[in-house]
Write a structure and sequence with these properties.
The protein starts with a helix and ends in a 14-residue tail after the last helix. It folds into 2 domains: about 40 residues, no CATH class; about 160 residues, Muramoyl-pentapeptide Carboxypeptidase, domain 2, CATH 3.30.1380. About 30% of the residues lie in helices and about 20% in strands. It has an 8-stranded mixed β-sheet. The longest helix is centred in the first third of the chain and has 19 residues. With about 220 residues, it is α+β, with helices and mostly antiparallel strands. The protein is built from 7 helices and 8 strands; from the N terminus they run H-H-H-E-E-H-H-E-E-H-E-E-E-E-H. Bound molecules: zinc ion. Zinc ion (ZN) binds next to strand 4.
Length: about 220
């Protein structure tokens, strides 16, 4: 008797073969779509609202940030610079972070605060200028919980930035390959690096606070 997970893998493998062999016959995929394993790999439907251009769209983003060519263009456009209206593709890894955040609060609107930025005052080294950063909030989320999750989940195995902007109620995420992961809180107009919440979020489970930590 196989363990449950192994049985599921056999089932899905068999079904994949069935799809290939008999497509376009309808598949009873709904029966397995809600299992945890399927959910862990399926693309995420992300409802977006761009607060700068007052535009809404729903896109499907893979866990790895992969999108279709059409969605790629839509995202490049909606995340254009709010000052110059210039466009630049957003890094795949960063899109994956947004998809993962959206999945955690499935169905809730992801408000885009900032994506690509190339106005004159934007730093030459800004991850926004490089198309690697997104500022966002999820309406109805607990921002401290989401902040801690993103830092804990992504900073250990990838090079990322996670920033918290409590006065404006949004989070910044970026991919920064080749650099060290860094967390910060914008407080009184200045970034406070290595904030207490980032240390608490990555503490061993036994010592991690049950509620999110402040600044
Ligand atoms: Zn930012």
């Amino acid at each position: 008797m196989l363990p449950a997970v192994a049985q599921f893998k056999v089932l899905t493998s068999a079904m994949t073969g069935f799809v290939a062999a008999s497509s376009p016959a309808p598949m009873p995929m709904a029966s397995v779509a809600l299992t945890l394993e399927a959910r862990a790999v399926e693309p995420i439907e992300v409802p977006l609202f761009d607060v700068n251009h007052v535009e809404s769209l729903t896109v499907v983003i893979g866990r790895d940030g992969g999108v279709t060519a059409a969605t790629f263009g839509q995202l490049e456009h909606v995340m254009r610079c709010k000052v110059t209206n210039n466009e630049k593709p957003i890094a795949k890894f960063t899109l994956g972070m947004i998809a993962d955040a959206s999945d955690r609060y499935r169905g809730k609107t992801v408000e885009l605060v900032s994506g690509f930025r190339d106005k004159a005052s934007e730093s030459k080294t800004s991850p926004h200028r490089a198309g690697r950063a997104i500022d966002f909030r999820i309406v109805g989320s607990e921002i401290g919980e989401l902040r801690d999750y993103l830092w804990r989940h992504f900073s250990r195995h990838s090079e990322v930035g996670v920033g918290w902007y409590p006065s404006d109620g949004f989070l910044h995420v970026d991919a920064r390959p080749g650099l060290k992961s860094i967390a910060w809180t914008l407080l009184n107009g200045a970034n406070q690096y290595h904030p207490a919440w980032s240390t608490a979020a990555t503490a061993p489970v036994t010592t991690r606070p049950t509620r999110s930590v402040g600044l």
